[in-house]
Amino acid sequence: MxxxxxxxxxxxxxxxxxxxxxxxxxxxxxxxxxAVAFLAKHELREDFVNTVLEAAQDRxxxxxxxxxxxxxxxxxxxxxxxxxxxEALLLWFQSMSRASVARRMGISQRTVDEYVRRARIKYAxxxxxxxxxxxxxxRAVADGLLHPPHVGAEHEEAPDSVGQLPxxx
Length: 169
Known about the structure:
- This protein is mainly α.
- The chain has eight helices and two strands, in the order αβαβαααααα.
- It folds into two domains: 2-71, Rossmann fold, CATH 3.40.50.2300; 83-150, Arc Repressor Mutant, subunit A.
- It has helices at residues 2-10, 24-32, 45-56, 64-71, 83-93, 98-105, 109-125, 133-142, and strands spanning 16-19, 37-40.
- Helix 2 packs across helix 4 (64-71), helix 5 crosses helix 7 and helix 6 crosses helix 7 (109-125).
- Residues 147-169 are annotated as: Disordered.
């Protein structure tokens, strides 16, 4: 299954995995392979609908089984992200487009793209590649940058009260 997820993801498809398995290793492996979300078969209908709708819009949605897996991912190989890289990622995870992130941060979209690119490189160098937004989200949650209930709470424009980003432990 993991190979097929990677194949589809590499071909530009948004992949939502719907499976019986709920162990963290399987969930994290599918996200690492490029799935935008993992949905366990026991999830509520509401989670199923929200996951599919958000994936179709390339926005993050974290159903309970996926949240449990990424929160429990406590690997010690955290990359050192700059304050601006963390800020750009946090705003992007709040379902803002990169153009909106740029406006909010007062920088160009090219700079936002560069922050995201640098973060991806740092995660890859740490042995934790994050090729998709969902994989990057999983890394950020696992590293304590944000918590699943706060993801996807805002669309396009985040409130002015994003505030100081937490430093990873």
